[in-house]
Amino acid sequence: xxxxxxxxxxxxxxxxxxxxxxTIVPVPSGIEGLLERVGHLDLSSTAEARQxxxxxxxxxxxxxxxTTREHGSADxxxxxxxFIGYLRRQGVLPSSEETSFYVYDIExxxxxxxxxxxxxxxxxSLIKPFxxxxxxxxxxxxxxxxxxxxxxxxxxxxxxxxxxxxxxNRIIDFVGGVxxxxxxxxxxxxxxxxxxxxxIPGDGRTYRNKTSAHDLNILLNQLYHGRxxxxxxxxxxxxxLRGYQTSRIDQLLLPMPEVKDLAGKTGVVYGMNGESxxxxxxNKAGQSRPFIFTxxxxxxxxxxxxxxxxxxxxxRSEIIxxxxxxxxxxxxxxxxxxxxxxxxxxxxxxxxxxxYNQRHDFIASARQRGKAYVGIIQEASKAxxxxxxxxxxxxxxxxxxxxxxxSPTGPxxxxxxxxxxxxxxxxxxxGHIDERLNPHKAIFAAAKILRGHINYFLAQYNxxxxxxxxxxxxxxxxxxxxxxxxxxxxxxxxxxxxxTNTKENKEYVPRVLAVRKIVFGT
Length: 522
Fold this sequence. Notes:
Elements: H1 3-10, H2 29-39, H3 43-52, H4 56-71, H5 76-89, E1 97-105, E2 110-115, E3 121-122, H6 128-139, H7 146-161, H8 165-175, H9 178-188, E4 210-211, H10 213-224, H11 231-242, H12 250-253, E5 259-269, E6 272-281, E7 291-299, H13 312-332, H14 335-339, H15 342-357, H16 360-370, H17 374-383, H18 388-399, H19 419-424, H20 439-460, H21 465-478, H22 480-490, H23 503-520
């Protein structure tokens, strides 16, 4: 990305334009009284109602704030659904208007949000990346002189980056016409909802060409992985898309340090507004986590309307920006990894809970012993800002609250600390004394170790307390270095997505959380 572009966008103001705010003109008190007596008008109520009216932009801002406040920790699809639902209830989005949203994590092959992605919609200029692909397919066959090749590629850049309609029509002619472009789309076998039926009219009002959020996602994903036409051609097309200058979301996203670049296309006619782009995102751990963001709004009644609302496209662009903001916040908080393969995580915990529930006597005796240490556990947890239920569950799994527990590999005591871990936590372990066998000191040492692990993972890997906690529990069993190495090698931030950790470690966190669920219900 051009560094000057980033600096320019980083310095842009964040002010949101407001439109359509009603002006309230005061009514003289004498006239007000007369009107109320003669016409039975409650002007105070009327004035209050008028004052309560908000512009679409204000309603959009309110809907975003309400969504983040009430559903900010939910999965992204739930957040988008709540936001769009609020706008419908407030009358910003009429019943005739339909929406599609698709957020796809490229590296993890993970669908983050999937709303009406296979609904065929007016494409407008979103048809142009497909035209570009057809042009590169023809270029790949050779037989084209350098001069013409250069001219074609200049037109492709103008078509994508400036959304030049004349350049688009020239590229369609170069490929062989609309039917030949459509033949390429069909032959590719990837884009079932994309149909090109017409060139771009002189007034730009193209309504017959169609595509879907899913097809747009497939195209960008294929380009990212170098699978469309050829690896070289895919890289070149993706580079062309990096330069698009019509984005609704670049001023919002590019100033963010996590967002390195965008590569996509927009499309708008009266009745359709959309954007589909690769967001080159880098997480806190420095791992590349690009995702594809697609948003489409379509109202089939608009193209035939006699009265054009000039603000329609602008308000939809603002909604697209807010959905993009929800999406990047979802990534910044690592909620994307908290919800990725969530059901598998729940199943692993559930399996361990089922196992424990069959060992009634063991559970009962361990809980009975644990009663003597609840006060110390709560005190230590408060001192190190932990949830005491987590510390309790770790000690349960480690020793079942047996203060003289000894492992064949060396760990001892209620917290099953190694000599090195105990000494790092400030305990004395020598030929004369072993403070690992002192329950009070061992529990405080365990709390200190757990807090240290949590702080480390929050600082180095993510901003998500739940993920950091689970990573810390895993590190309690196998050591921080081992878990960090696995996360780094596998380019993950969450214990739950690791494959190279030991079998014992894979079972350890589910065991701890299963105990917590059995004992505390959460």
